[in-house]
Input
Amino acid sequence: MFEIKCPWCGARDESEFTYGGESHIARPDPAASSDEVWAEYLYYRTNTKGWFRERWRHTFGCGQWFNVLRHTATHEIKAVYKMTDRAPEIEP
Output
């Protein structure tokens, strides 16, 4: 387990949160998108080993969604930021 710092509640154990998948994914225009584009959007995600931007929800706390920049192999967290904040750069 690891600790996540909720932007509203502070540091809490990972068990209080729900993983929401990859963040910063643009939803395609429903009127102008093909089936292939929708399939890509719905089913295909980056499976990065390393630094990865992801969404989390503080399910057993404030209930807010936020983003985390986390290393998927070590679980080190470099940044936690609100959904409205700009995404930090990923450095190697």
